[in-house]
Amino acid sequence: MFELLLVAAVLVVLVGIFSAMDGSRDVFHPLILIGPMMILLYGWIPWRIYSIGGLDQFFDQEQLVFVQTLNVLGILAFVAGCLASGIRLRPEPGSRRPVLSETACRRLLIGAALVGSLGLLCWAITIVNVGGFVNAYSNSYAGGWDDSGYVRDGTLLLLVGTLLSITALASNGPRLPSFIMLGFFGIPWASQALLMARRGPTFALVVIVLMGWYLSREKRPPVLSVGLGGVFLGWFVLFLVTNRSSIYLGSSFDVKTDVGAIVDKPDSGNEFIYGSGTILSAQRRDHYFWMRRYLAQILVRPIPSAIWPTKYEDFGVPELRQNAGTGEGFGDALGWVGAVGSAPGIIADLWIEAWWLCIPLMALLGWVYAFAWKRAVTRGGPWASQYIVLSALSIYLVMQTMEAVIFRALLLSIPCWLIWRWALQSVPLRHRRPQIKNAYPMETIEHA
To answer: Which residues cross the membrane (predicted)?
Structure first.
């Protein structure tokens, strides 16, 4: 039965991908981007581990069937939500894509310079704190550091600067300033992503650069190029994880090109095994958060710990301090403990938050992604930037948790909205003195 459910998960995603491609003819449709990651997490990975008997040491057949049934329902809901939003694009009455003027492009670059420079400053602070660039990246998975979460998370603003710079460049804005800012903001982020072997930041940068260019020019790369590029990107992010201990400055770079071991390794840190444990532990303990973790990301996380050191405890979610609250009760409920730093994937994360309501929430997520895609295609401008942000964060959504998405989405999307709003404002005309139609002075008229 478990094998059939694995096949069902893959088939549901494939039907969604082909339906989206047939209806939209757009390689940037969310199902084409997110679908392969769902196949990896809920189809390929569990099948590889199950085929070598690696799941038997963690779960029995009944548990596997329950978990995979939930996964299939969640995937089906996401696909249905995406398709329900509409896949055949029709021009909306009164809507049109804004044509960026020279002034709008210049304002986008100014906004990119301001926000990107703030991100660059945060990145530089973290590097200086650990003794410089070489010290920061001379150990595996090291990087910079600062005690302030604002500084650490502030480096995300480098992505905003990169996105707006390439948008201005693709919209025929000033070329030299655009290229300069792409270098200043993109290279530090790339160094942080590659020298720390971080799959999420690497994926996000690639998506922002490619989609930022093509969406701004209202063009699409060939389907074959997207397919081959997607396969390479998927292999590359797995390559980074596989060789994380060998990628750093001064390393011998003795790397492995076979990434299969990271996929079928049966340990408690594997995404499918850890996610399944998260679901079963919450079910056995009958413990769910009912949106408190997500609210904490919005209401509590922005408050510095130096001001409110017990903020999560006082809010009622002390579990957030370890694995975002997803690894509670494993020992008592399952007899084994999830690895520290692991993530369960989106369906398991929604399950411990909202029980069976995770199914309609998955449908809502699918609808949101498809809605943002439609607006990006039909209206462009700020909607294109918002969809690119959501697409860049999709790897966190599928493979990690909503907590990994919420604060990143807010930190990236809000500056984009504000800068776009300013860029698209009409340029006020200078006030000119009213011309006097009568050329004669008033005194002359009175004495005439």
So the answer is: 6-21, 28-45, 65-87, 108-130, 150-169, 176-194, 200-216, 223-242, 354-373, 380-399, 405-424
Query: Rounded to an integer, what distance in angstroms lies between the CA atom of residue 235 and that of residue 149?
Result: 31
Q: Which domain holds residue 233?
A: 102-256
Percentage, residues of the chain above pLDDT 70 = 93
CA of 388: how far to CAs of 137, 176, 375, 413, in Å? 29, 24, 12, 10
- For residue 389, tell me if it sits in a domain: no
pLDDT at 82 over 80: yes
- What distances in angstroms separate CA 54 from CA 6, 57, 68, 269, one per listed residue? 15, 6, 16, 13
Percent of the chain with pLDDT over 90: 69
Q: What's the CA gap between 200 and 237, in Å, rounded?
A: 8
Q: Give the residue-averaged pLDDT of 84-101.
A: 66
Decide: 398 and 345 in contact? Cβ < 8 Å: yes
308 token code pair: 């409110």
Q: How far apart are CA 433 and CA 428, in angstroms?
A: 15
As a whole number, mean pLDDT of residues 68-77 equals 97
Query: Please, what sign has the CA dihedral across residues 89, 95, 99, 104?
Result: negative
Domain count within the chain: 1
Has residue 145 been placed in a domain?
A: yes
- State how far the Cα of 369 lies from the Cα of 16, in Å rounded to an integer: 14
**Does residue 73 lie in a domain region?**
no
User: pLDDT at position 250, please?
Assistant: 85
Highest-pLDDT range among 22-36, 89-103, 244-258: 22-36
pLDDT at 160 over 90: yes
pLDDT above 50 for 284: yes
Separation of alpha carbons 330 and 274, rounded Å: 10
Say whether pLDDT at 95 is over 80.
no
Per-residue pLDDT reduced to its tens digit, 333-343? 898 998 888 89
Is 438 inside a domain boundary?
no
Contact 390, 339 (CB under 8 A): no
